[in-house]
Amino acid sequence: MILVLFVCFALFLTIGLPLAFSMGLSAIAAIALASGQTLLIVPQRITASLDSFALLAVPLFILAGELMNSGGITERIVRFSRSMMGHFKGGLAQANILSNMFMAALSGSSLADLSAIGSMMIPAMTREGYKKSYSVAITSCAALMAPIIPPSVIAVIYGSITGISIGALFLAGAIPGILAGIGIMILARVMATKGGATAMPREGWKMRAKASRDAAPAMAVPVIIVGGILSGIFTPTEAGAVAVAYALLYGIATRRHNAGGVYNLLLSAGVTTASALLTLAGASLFSYVLVSSGFAQATLDLLSAITDDPHLAMLLIFFVLLVLGMFVETVSALILVTPILMPMVAHYGFHDIQFGIFTLMSLVLGGLTPPVGILAMVACRIAGIEYGKTFGMLMPFILWWAVATLLVGYVPFLTLWLPSLVFN
To answer: What does pTM read for this prediction?
Structure first.
């Protein structure tokens, strides 16, 4: 089964079949050719992977992000960040990072954050004399915070697969996400001169107060979402619905939304959701073959044979996840490896919540690294520069994110303090 699975998977990718169909069809081929297996398992596994109330949060958060971007929330966040940070050397870079941090607490999607913030900040940084490679590195690395700082779409998916509390995962990602953001800010300041950074005029307190008032409604969104989940007022799925209603009403109140525009946003969110769920269905079939064929147990046995030291095992898992994230989109990679990783969590005594955030941070790093590097690629398209010309500037940020990920893996306090404080 494993041989058929990987041979078919490689063949389908070679001929250019989309990843979701490559995974699904290669799994179907492996099941069809295996003795003792029936193709009836295919619709059963697809239905089981998608029939989850928690997964309803995914389209809702995607739609909420679309509504927030269209409703002017992103612009107000960028304006607030510039008023607070623009007067420092490299202030636009710092404002870029701060904007991404705030947007991470709204959309939970790195690609959505990059598209929203990057389309405004990269051209602005270029006009101010920043090097394009520096702008790309700042924007794409800052977008990595979106899947970590709550609410996070991939944390919802991970929680629905593993049964771990989504609210606890949200809380666990807060400190690591902020820590990573502070590190990006420090690194951006250190590299400011090399990146051609300048300082903007300092704004008066009156202008800052106005920018703060304008951004206040947007900043209330994560408080409502996370606070509502933790207090038990609503579930993560219901929180997504609340976020959609809030963003819709906000856009109507500011006269940024109309019937035609909302319809187009619904279509866009529907296409994005369908793509994600098709990938999830294909990856779930692929994972089923990996687990049912004994591949997961064989992987655990191999790792156990290499080392019984949890710390060394954590490091090896990090490198495996990093390489996987380089070639496979984050959601697909997450669904593929989670059934394989869960036995390792129990075997080595890792805390499931801590290991969950460590896994997410390891996989999202592939958004910057070749050959896929989707975040860096999109940022390069916005900036009008080739990806190869930005890698030298990207490397320090990639190394910092790797360090932050390993800190999460080896320092339990970073992920477990907030959940333990709230959930006792």
So the answer is: 0.82
